[in-house]
Design brief:
Elements lengths: L24 E7 L8 E7 L2 E7 L12 H4 L1 H5 L9 E3 L10 E3 L2 H18 L4 E5 L5 H11 L4 E2 L2 H4 L1 H11 L7 E3 L6 E5 L7 H13 L3 E5 L12 E3 L6 H15 L4 H7 L5 E3 L19 E3 L5 E3 L13 E3 L2 E5 H9 L4 H8 L3 H17 L2 E3 L3 E2 L5 E2 L2 E3 L2 E5 L1 H4 L4 H15 L8 E3 L42 E2 L2 E2 L21 H7 L7 E5 L11 H9 L11 E6 L11 E4 L8 E3 L13 E5 L12 H12 L5 E2 L2 E2 L4 H7 L31 H7 L3 E3 L14 H9 L16 H10 L11 H10 L10 H5 L7 E6 L13 H6 L5 E3 L1 H6 L7 E6 L3 E8 L7 E5 L16 H4 L11 E2 L6 E2 L13 E7 L14 H17 L4
Helix pairs in contact: 3-17, 4-17, 6-14, 8-11, 8-12, 8-14, 11-12, 21-22
Length: 956
Amino acid sequence: MAVDAENVQTAEELNVIPQPTPASTRRVHTTCYMCACRCGIEVTVEDERIRFISGIPESPVNHGVWCAKGGAGIMTQYSPARLTSPLMRAPGSERGEGELVPVDWETALSTVEGWLREIRNTDPAKLAYFTGRDQMQAFNGYWAKQFGTPNWAAHGGFCSVNMAAGGMYSIGGSFWEFGWPDVEHARLFILIGVAEDHPSNPLKLAIAKLKDRGGRFVVVNPVRSGYGALADEWIPIHPGTDGALLMAFMHVLVQEGLYDAEFLRRYTNAAALVEQAPGTERDGRIWQAENGDMMVVLPSGQFVPFKDAQGQGQLEGTYTFQGRTFMPAFQILKDRLRTCTPKWAEQITHVPRKTIVRLALEMGQTAMKHPVFLPEPWTDFYGTRHSHTIGRPVAFHAMRGLAAHTNGFQTIRALFDLMMMLGTIDTPGGFRYKSPYPKAAPPPVSPAPNREDYQPNQAAPKPLLGYPTSPDDLLVEGDTPIRIDEAYSWKYPLAAHGVIQNVIRNAHDQRPYGIDTLMIYMANIAWNSSWNTLETRQMLTAKDEKGNYKIPHVVVIDAYDSETVAFADIVFPDTTYLERWDASSLQDRPISEPEGPADSIRQPVVPPPRDVRPAADTLIELANRLQLPGFVENGKVRYKTYKDFIQLWETQPGSGVGILAGFRGRDGKSQLVGEPNPRQLEAYAKNKAFWFQPLPESRKYYRMANVEYLNWSKEVKFNPSSDPIILNFYSDALQTFRLAGQGLWPGKKPTDPALRERLVTYFDPLPFWHPPLEMVMAPIEEYPLVMITQRPMTHYHSWGSQNAWLRQLLHENPLFVNPQTATKLGLKDGQWVWMESRQGRMTATLRFSDAVEPGTVWTWNAIAKAPGSWGLDPKAPESQRAILVNHIVPDTLPTDSGVLFNNDPITGQAGWYDTRVRIYPSELHEVWPKVAARKPKQVEMTQLTHLRYSTRKGAR
């Protein structure tokens, strides 16, 4: 039918409002990545633009709650800092200037492939691959192992390895991903050294439940922020002294008899007989029966294996057998605790002795006189049937504030010994394991220890990280480390997470050797994830006498234009967490809860920019080109993408255990163990992106001793056997290292007297307190204050402060000081000051706060940015008014025997919170030191590419 154009009336003439085309809206479930909580989220997408992010009520992690960071994931997705194509350092430009030019994928891949092929053909140790707070560490570790380098680790050495290792060597688990406080049944909850971002939503929910029930909440921290504001009592403690406080708590408990002797006898090695034989290789070792069981003494005086004693081993006394002398481990600690009085601890911690006594009595009386009884029977490994489950309702949670000191490992050991004394390990109201924990304490997994294990063109024979149980497990040739970061050497024997902070200086100094390629994923090692930052940046750009870079090649994989990108020779752009397939795995960092094992996935919510690929896909492509074993078999590629890897990879061929535990088997009906399911991710997507299997009530508690649980844990391959997991009140493994220092160990032992002294001094099998090493180096008379830093609730690492929404909440950070301290120094609120450490000095503006311990100054972490990075204007407040205390945190300790890092001598944990400083008026009223602004060429190109992509996709 023809239309009469002349008679057609316009919409305006008809007074009709045009109706918009209905929007295309969908909701996608995935897992948040705005911090480490891994909350379940629902993302609303409208016309292929992310419009809203909210929590998933069914998620076992956050139960529908989400936070400012999680909701602001929208602005992280649409950040101007996005990298949108591979980049290469411009010809003729200098590393660190940020002059990078876009290149095609084939150019970037073939260039790095050439570097890696040469390394693998000659010496795979010339590759150092280190990652930040990524959540695919199982994959990254497997990739590095198949490449054959010993030099891989994540960021744990810079973060909280003391917490993880201290727990694993004590109870076969720890806090955070390893375990959780049972606040639901607790009457007293003590939070020690936990910043307000860690872990955000789950801890907020737990505290709310506790307070609703009338439970008491105590915070021990130099700073009262975040969770501390909700506490019934704040205990302001001097940094680095928590171990002394914990030892004093145990002193009071022993003096008053307020400890769970039955728990110690039945489930720990506190009753184990320790030989007293100075000058022999038996000294300090636990007496073992022929079957390997430890020996104890019964009330009758008879010596029997631990399991035969049925929990009747004696905790006190001195005993002789055939001319040999033995003492129970508990007796040795009891003797040590005599001098660890509240008066002693008061001088160290700045916590009044009356407060120490009162808190110790409160936790002891709550545990011993007000137990929790659950009407759930269970059977222990002795064969005893318990008609109910008893709990000691004192819960603890601790994190980096305890760990990030050079005395942190022994502090964590003290905390777990205290918890064992109170009987709060995996009991109602106390600490509870998260699957797949508990493991043996420690698990018998450690890297291949010899240099010949890392040969050209072959995979490493064992995992690259683990838990040495004796000096023979160390990666050393004589006194020389095998790894570039010196992990598992005599300097840092139990470096369970590697020592990422050592890498750049050691590579620069070619100690113990030089490397060819440094590959970094999600680690801002040129700024926020380094200490002594200015010198670290210089080492990345340093050249030898021939004009060649001392670190020949630097490869960066990241989603954002961080400070480290400017130091790269090749940059591979990564996807965001809303653009890729990913997994929170039981092999890595699961979302398990004490109620049962759980894991989750991430799925693409929106497509990535055209020239952006997931980091794991890039690594798989490189593995396939290099024909790494496990990736290419008999010339056949096994995985084309990380999506394939997630669904098809197994820990061992035919093991039935893979990245994800749910919906296994060809029909998707198997859980935990089953053959690979090529449609597994589809099943997760239909189940709101997670899988959760609640444990039966009879398996939820005392899992280290619960026969039903132990049998099941073997069945599902959490543990290789159903043997009970005896908690290590006393660490026999640590004593083997002390013997090596004394020259008494029959296997590997150091020859350097300084290395031997370190082992003898710090590898005590029972916890003790010593001052952090940096606090000894910097005298209190010259540097009277301790500087610490912590992350705010609104930000996480570097990611938050490049987010347009979160920046509005916090974009600069003053130095907080107690008013009494400032007044004594003649300083005023808002005044510019110098803050000086042994390493150097920097400026800051003061802010008075009663919520800080008088001997401490502190500020937020990860706010400051180098000018021109992260897609921010060079004059943004983050680079003009925010401060980065990393500049003056010392990375090394002066010694007469060469370079030692400012690390815990047991695990290599960075001494983040040990810096002594003095503050005084500054004539300079601006942030200093300054770094040169990056050349704007790459920033502009990144933004232009992003703009072109957004326009092409119809972005508004």
